[in-house]
Amino acid sequence: MNHSSLRDSAAEALRRTRAANPLIHTITNFVTVNDCANIILAAGGSPTMAHDPREVEEIAAVSQAVVLNMGAIEDLDAMILAGREAGRRGIPVVLDPVAAGASRLRRESCVKLLEQVPLTIVRGNASEIKALAVGSSSTRGVDAGGADIITEKTLPAAVQMAGDLSRRLNAVIAISGVIDVVALDGRAVWLRNGCAEMSRITGSGCMLTALLGAVAGANRGRPFEAAVAAVGMMGFAGELAQQRMRELGGGTATFRACLIDAVSMMTPDQLKGGLQIEGNE
Amino acid sequence: MNHSSLRDSAAEALRRTRAANPLIHTITNFVTVNDCANIILAAGGSPTMAHDPREVEEIAAVSQAVVLNMGAIEDLDAMILAGREAGRRGIPVVLDPVAAGASRLRRESCVKLLEQVPLTIVRGNASEIKALAVGSSSTRGVDAGGADIITEKTLPAAVQMAGDLSRRLNAVIAISGVIDVVALDGRAVWLRNGCAEMSRITGSGCMLTALLGAVAGANRGRPFEAAVAAVGMMGFAGELAQQRMRELGGGTATFRACLIDAVSMMTPDQLKGGLQIEGNE
Amino acid sequence: MNHSSLRDSAAEALRRTRAANPLIHTITNFVTVNDCANIILAAGGSPTMAHDPREVEEIAAVSQAVVLNMGAIEDLDAMILAGREAGRRGIPVVLDPVAAGASRLRRESCVKLLEQVPLTIVRGNASEIKALAVGSSSTRGVDAGGADIITEKTLPAAVQMAGDLSRRLNAVIAISGVIDVVALDGRAVWLRNGCAEMSRITGSGCMLTALLGAVAGANRGRPFEAAVAAVGMMGFAGELAQQRMRELGGGTATFRACLIDAVSMMTPDQLKGGLQIEGNE
């Protein structure tokens, strides 16, 4: 275990993101698309949300990372085209399997996408990752909810699940929740950053996925370090935002603005100091 | 008349919403979809914005309420599928007939939806409700505007119109404006909460519709009380937000954040104290 | 040169916008559509984002301006229908050629739109305007980026390009960047308002385009003065927002709220005092 080195690499990953201004091709849902664009900009990247199948390959080809958010289920064809083009060029691809187990359409779409697109990082909550791990035969809907919260008790099982899925997909798996897990093959860490307000706004998960794209795009060949950096950055930004929201006497909308603010103002040294990483790396 | 009991039931409706965390299936327009998701979360619900016809019935079936916002006119088929599934299961359906009279497409779509989906609550401004009341033969466009503002003088006519439409649709009718009207069959109340800034941001109406879904979903079998609670909650939140915006020296974007903040922080007792209800219940 | 008269006409253009409450039919992309609606409201207009081909002609016909944002590339048919209807009625049409050179689809769509829709104002950054000026034969993608920033050195060339394109399209050309250029035939001015934070949020460009629609819609027959007013208003609002963000100790999300706030609170006299106009008018 060498978490001070992960802390260093996270700071370095953020530094590179701000310096490289990576173009992040993000195909994402209409609910939180504006937040995703703004968080990419806050981290130092440039977003493009092109999602027309007639142009996504051209756009993906000149991007530094491609982000595919299954909330935009109607854009599945565009996602596969963009993801395959990225794969051909060695451009990192980040997948968010939004509500993966909630309908037959989503289960089948996930299977299709996993078969056709090589993934670099997959991020979901515990139930979404579980839906991918269990496979398309699952018939559970949104009621997979119980599995959604990683507690001290369920942490070992979550780490195991993430590692297994990582080996199967040959990708970094990031599970977000009260405790976040990041796994790649035999490596796994968990992070205790974050706050309760993150689940009282829409977009915390989608924004983290977009942030993973930005950081991975600027740190090619280092997806595990990039994922730890992005997951930690979002969680730590949540803590700073909670504190600021309380000082201002605000509610959830204030929290949301403070969250993006915190990402936009975070320095590499601040990030290094704020990360709470544990694990068996 | 017993408005202290409506005040009590509104407080109770909010308490239940926060406790039940209802899943609100919202098919809504892309302009304000993020605000709608955030207001549902602020009230204590969980939003899902699934709108693909291939999955909306599955999603509606496990939801506590279905919200149909005609601003998403291109999703009419999905709305009808979700609404009918909700109807089969006794799940409350809330309709927002956005710009109902503004085009032939909208008039025809409204007729189709009213014929096929059993509604629990319909919310619009005066001109939208009038467009439904008058029916599809109306050829007026967006210029129905004059009818948009309920004044002391037009209040009796608005109450009458709401009651008549309520009987015809067998649903609660909520008309929002400077004065808000809520009617169910012979019952009708009006609320004097709210502020002018609500019409200087986009989404006040759509957010109220989403909030109606959240509160109705957690208070099944009590749609009139739920509607009074949600309408009053949004209006009172507007007053709190106006006050806060002025303290901060902000403009319309500050107001919008303060509005969602106020909903997220509102306690049942605060709501009870803030409601300004009158009427002939 | 008579810039005090342009300052006066800008103040007058804002005064008219607040008084006329113009209906602005905006067909725009899903990333920043909410910001566009809110900036139109902040300026005193009323937005409608109808984009279904079956109704856009009816909606355009009763609007005071039509805004076409090519970010919504999937809505090209609706844009052409709305734009042509506006043309038939003498209603101003504002075009934003988002990422005009970034894909073959966008180049071809621009050509099609320019052929079929009479334009009143075109606004883009330097590379987008360059893509239109060079025409569809260009094969450069998003990497036209170098041309994106207008510096003192490139200003004369940018003014020349804007003037040439203005004559070709018979429309006002507005190029936004560190320095903004507004040209109509032989007239050209440049504005030094604005701040760096505007490029760290999404939507600055789209919001300016929407604002151009609002101001042009309330000032028919004076598109050059309207464009100078809107471009200056957005830049000056950026300066006010930057100052306020710093006072509040906020980041990019705070800046964005302050930007819309500033537009919503700006008085004609404030605008007149804040404009930094130069040029050869």
From TrEMBL, chains A, B, C:
Required co-factors: Mg(2+)
Alphabetical UniProt keywords: ATP-binding, Kinase, Magnesium, Metal-binding, Nucleotide-binding, Thiamine biosynthesis, Transferase
Group of enzyme by EC: transferase
A GO term, aspect molecular function: hydroxyethylthiazole kinase activity
Coiled-coil portions: none
InterPro entries according to UniProt: Hyethyz_kinase, Ribokinase-like
Enzyme nomenclature, EC number: 2.7.1.50
Record NCBIfam families: PRK09355.1
Function according to Swiss-Prot or TrEMBL: Catalyzes the phosphorylation of the hydroxyl group of 4-methyl-5-beta-hydroxyethylthiazole (THZ).
Name used for this protein in its record: Hydroxyethylthiazole kinase
Gene: thiM
